[in-house]
Write a structure and sequence with these properties.
It comes from Tetragonisca angustula. The chain is built from 16 helices and two strands. With about 325 residues, it is mainly alpha-helical.
Length: about 325
C-alpha cells in the first residue's frame, strides 16, 4: 500500500490525495498573494527603497494585522495549513465531520471494490452509531456484487466483539437490501452467505431469514440456499419463527417450505400452518408447488385433529392440480 496516503489511522482516498496535490502546488507560489494574513507569517517582505513607500507599506501592514487580529477564528478565510475555507452557513465542526465521513466512505468503497478486498474496521472505530449507519447506507448504494461479496467475506472473519458491534448494521442496511434487489441469481453472494449460515446460523436466521419473510422477492436462490444449509435440527425452529412472523403465504415461500415441512410439527404449529394454507387455497388452487407442499405436509404429519382434517379436506377439494386425488386418498385413510 502507498505510504503517502496514510494519515495516522486513516487511509486517504484518491480524491483527497489529488486535492492535497493541488494545495501543495498553490503553496509553492508566492504565499503573500494568497491572503493578507500571510503577510504576518511571511518573513520575506517586499523590499522598498523609497522611505515614503516603506512607511506606507508599514502602515498598510499594521492595518492588516489589526484587522486580522480583531477577527474571530471562524471569520478567518484561511488556516495556517491552507486546507479549509470556512463557509459562513456551516460551523467548522460540521464541515470537518462531513468531510471526514465522505473520506471514510470513499476509502472503504475503494478497498472493498478491489480484488480480494477487505473491510477495514479501523476506519469505523471512532464513529458514532449514526455516523456508521450513514456510511453503511452510502456503501449499499455504491457497492457492486464483488464489493458486497468481499464485505460478507470480511464479516465471516470478524472477531466476536466485532460481530456484536457491526453485524446487525451491515446485514440489515447493506446485505439485506442487496438480496431484495436481486433480479437474477448471484453465485458470489450465494456462496458467501452459505458460508455465513454455516458459521453463524443465529445471525443469518435473525437478520436475513426473518426480515425477508414479508418481502416480495424476485429471485429466491439465496433464501433457498440458506434454508437448505441450516442443520436439520434447526428446521423446527425455523418453522416456528416463520409462522410467528409471516403475515401471509407468498408464492416464493413454497420452495423453502418444502424443505422445512419434512420435520414433524406439533399440534399448535399444525394449526397455524393449516390456517395459513387454507387462506391461500383458492389463490393457489392451480399452483403445482402449492399442491405438492400440501401433499408433503399431510404425508409427514399423520396425526391431525378433526378440525385440522376438515380444513385439509377443504384445501384438497379446492385444489385443481394432479395432487388433488393423492391428498384426498391419504385423508380418507386417516
Amino acid at each position: 500500500m502507498n505510504q503517502e496516503n496514510i494519515l495516522k489511522n486513516y487511509i486517504l482516498s484518491q480524491y483527497s490525495m489529488e486535492k492535497l496535490t493541488v494545495i501543495k502546488e498553490k503553496l509553492r507560489e508566492n504565499i503573500i498573494q494568497a491572503d493578507p494574513m500571510w503577510r504576518i507569517l511571511n518573513q520575506n517582505k517586499k523590499e522598498v527603497t523609497d522611505e515614503e513607500s516603506t512607511e506606507e507599506a508599514s502602515n498598510s501592514s499594521n492595518e492588516d494585522c489589526n484587522d486580522i487580529l480583531s477577527k474571530t477564528p471562524d471569520q478567518l478565510s484561511s488556516t495556517q495549513f491552507y486546507f479549509t475555507q470556512p463557509d459562513k452557513s456551516f460551523n467548522t465542526s460540521t464541515q470537518q465531520e462531513h468531510i471526514s465521513n465522505l473520506d471514510i466512505t470513499e476509502c472503504l468503497f475503494e478497498e472493498l471494490e478491489c480484488p480480494n478486498g477487505k473491510l477495514d474496521l479501523n476506519q469505523l472505530e471512532n464513529l458514532t452509531e449514526t455516523e456508521c449507519l450513514k456510511i453503511v447506507c452510502d456503501l449499499e448504494k455504491r457497492l457492486n456484487p464483488i464489493g458486497t461479496y468481499n464485505l460478507c467475506c470480511s464479516m465471516n472473519n470478524m472477531t466476536l466483539n466485532q460481530r456484536i458491534k457491526y453485524v446487525q448494521i451491515f446485514y440489515t442496511h447493506l446485505v439485506l437490501p442487496k438480496i431484495i434487489a436481486l433480479e437474477e441469481p448471484s453465485r458470489l453472494l450465494l456462496s458467501v452467505l452459505v458460508e455465513s449460515t454455516q458459521k453463524f446460523p443465529n445471525d443469518i436466521q435473525q437478520f436475513i431469514f426473518i426480515p425477508l419473510l414479508n418481502v416480495d422477492l424476485t429471485d429466491t436462490t439465496i433464501i433457498d440456499g440458506i434454508v437448505n444449509t441450516f442443520e436439520p435440527e434447526r428446521r423446527i425452529i425455523l418453522i416456528a419463527k416463520y409462522l410467528s412472523y409471516v403475515k401471509e403465504l407468498k408464492s416464493w415461500h413454497l420452495s423453502f417450505l418444502h424443505t422445512l415441512i419434512t420435520t414433524t410439527t406439533d399440534i399448535t404449529l399444525n394449526d397455524k400452518l393449516i390456517q395459513l394454507l387454507s387462506e391461500k387455497a383458492v389463490d393457489f388452487a392451480k399452483d403445482k408447488s402449492f399442491g405438492k407442499l400440501v401433499l408433503s405436509f399431510i404425508k409427514s404429519n399423520i396425526k391431525f385433529s378433526n378440525e385440522q382434517k376438515e380444513l385439509l379436506w377443504e384445501i384438497a377439494n379446492i385444489n385443481q392440480t394432479l395432487y388433488k386425488k393423492p391428498m384426498q386418498n391419504i385423508l380418507k385413510s386417516m
